[in-house]
Amino acid sequence: MTDSESSQSADGARLLTPADVRRLADRFGVRPTKTLGQNFVIDGGTVRRIVRVSGVGAGDTVLEVGPGLGSLTLALLPHVAGVTAVEVDPVLADALPGTVAEHAPDLAGRLRVVAADAMRITEVPGPEPTALVANLPYNVAVPVVLHLLELLPSLRRGLVMVQAEVADRLAAAPGGRTYGVPSAKAAWYADVRRAGAVGRNVFWPAPNVDSGLVSLERRDAPVADVDRREVFAVIDAAFAQRRKTLRAALSSWAGSPARAEEALRAAGVDPTARGEALGIEEFARIAEHAPPKEV
C-alpha cells in the first residue's frame, strides 16, 4: 500500500503521510525543536488508533494541545463536533487552517485554532471542550494535563500520548515506585490508566524514548472541607523526601514532626507510612487535619 493510498479516509479527511509532513515542514520553514518538544506524528495508523481509543464522538468538542502540522487534527475532525487546537508555535498555528482546508475542505469549519501556551491559557474560546486528545511534548506533559483538568471542568475524558515513563507515572497506583506527585494529583481529577504503547518510528524526528497512551476519565474530587491547593501542598511535601516516613516528610508542612504525627493520626494515617502508600483520599484527609498556622 502506498503512502497516498494509506492516507485516504472515507470520512472526509486525507491524513498526512510521511512525505506530506516533510513537505509541509519545508513549506513553512519548520525544523522540529527540542525546546518545544516537537516530534511530529507521521503514521496514519497511529492517529486513527488515538481517535478510536479516545472514544470521542459526534457530540464532542475536542481540545487538542500541540497540533503541530495537523496529523492528529485531521484524524479527529471527521468524528467530532469540533476541534479547538492550542498551538504555542505561531508559525504552526497560522499554517494549520490552510492544511485542514487542503486535506479536509468540508471539515475546515470544525476547526478553531488558538495561538497560545497551553500552560498559560485562562480560558478557551468557543464551545466548552468535552475531551482532551493530544500528542503532548514530553517536557510539559504533566503540568499541561493538570492545568487543563483544573481549568476546564467540562473535560469529561481524555487520551494523551506522552513519554512512556511519564505515562507510567501518571497512571501509577499507590504502592509502587513509579507512584508519586503526578499520579496522586491526577487522581484528584480523574481515573487514569495506561491505554497502550507507541513506538519511536511513528514520529519525525524519532525520539530517543518510547511513548505511551494515557486514558483519563473525569471523576468527582474527594469530598473534603479543604481547597485542592491545600491537598496538593500535602502531596508535594510527602514526596519531597519520599524515603522518609510521613511523620518526618510532613514536619515542615505541619510545623514539627510532633504536629505532623498529630495530623496524621487524626486523619487515620499511620505516621510511619510513606507517601507512596497513600491514595488521594488519604491526602485529602491529612489536609483536613492540618495544624493551625502559628502566628
Automatic annotation (TrEMBL):
<dbReference type="InterPro" id="IPR011530">
    <property type="entry name" value="rRNA_adenine_dimethylase"/>
</dbReference>
<dbReference type="Pfam" id="PF00398">
    <property type="entry name" value="RrnaAD"/>
</dbReference>
<comment type="similarity">
    <text>Belongs to the class I-like SAM-binding methyltransferase superfamily. rRNA adenine N(6)-methyltransferase family. RsmA subfamily.</text>
</comment>
<dbReference type="InterPro" id="IPR020596">
    <property type="entry name" value="rRNA_Ade_Mease_Trfase_CS"/>
</dbReference>
<keyword id="KW-0808">Transferase</keyword>
<keyword id="KW-0489">Methyltransferase</keyword>
<dbReference type="InterPro" id="IPR023165">
    <property type="entry name" value="rRNA_Ade_diMease-like_C"/>
</dbReference>
<feature type="domain" description="Ribosomal RNA adenine methylase transferase N-terminal">
    <location>
        <begin position="46"/>
        <end position="220"/>
    </location>
</feature>
<feature type="binding site">
    <location>
        <position position="41"/>
    </location>
    <ligand>
        <name>S-adenosyl-L-methionine</name>
    </ligand>
</feature>
<comment type="function">
    <text>Specifically dimethylates two adjacent adenosines (A1518 and A1519) in the loop of a conserved hairpin near the 3'-end of 16S rRNA in the 30S particle. May play a critical role in biogenesis of 30S subunits.</text>
</comment>
<dbReference type="InterPro" id="IPR001737">
    <property type="entry name" value="KsgA/Erm"/>
</dbReference>
<protein>
    <recommendedName>
        <fullName>Ribosomal RNA small subunit methyltransferase A</fullName>
        <ecNumber>2.1.1.182</ecNumber>
    </recommendedName>
</protein>
<dbReference type="InterPro" id="IPR020598">
    <property type="entry name" value="rRNA_Ade_methylase_Trfase_N"/>
</dbReference>
<dbReference type="InterPro" id="IPR029063">
    <property type="entry name" value="SAM-dependent_MTases_sf"/>
</dbReference>
<keyword id="KW-0694">RNA-binding</keyword>
<feature type="binding site">
    <location>
        <position position="135"/>
    </location>
    <ligand>
        <name>S-adenosyl-L-methionine</name>
    </ligand>
</feature>
<feature type="binding site">
    <location>
        <position position="87"/>
    </location>
    <ligand>
        <name>S-adenosyl-L-methionine</name>
    </ligand>
</feature>
<keyword id="KW-0963">Cytoplasm</keyword>
<feature type="binding site">
    <location>
        <position position="39"/>
    </location>
    <ligand>
        <name>S-adenosyl-L-methionine</name>
    </ligand>
</feature>
<keyword id="KW-0949">S-adenosyl-L-methionine</keyword>
<feature type="binding site">
    <location>
        <position position="66"/>
    </location>
    <ligand>
        <name>S-adenosyl-L-methionine</name>
    </ligand>
</feature>
<dbReference type="GO" id="GO:0052908">
    <property type="term" value="F:16S rRNA (adenine(1518)-N(6)/adenine(1519)-N(6))-dimethyltransferase activity"/>
</dbReference>
<keyword id="KW-0698">rRNA processing</keyword>
<feature type="binding site">
    <location>
        <position position="117"/>
    </location>
    <ligand>
        <name>S-adenosyl-L-methionine</name>
    </ligand>
</feature>
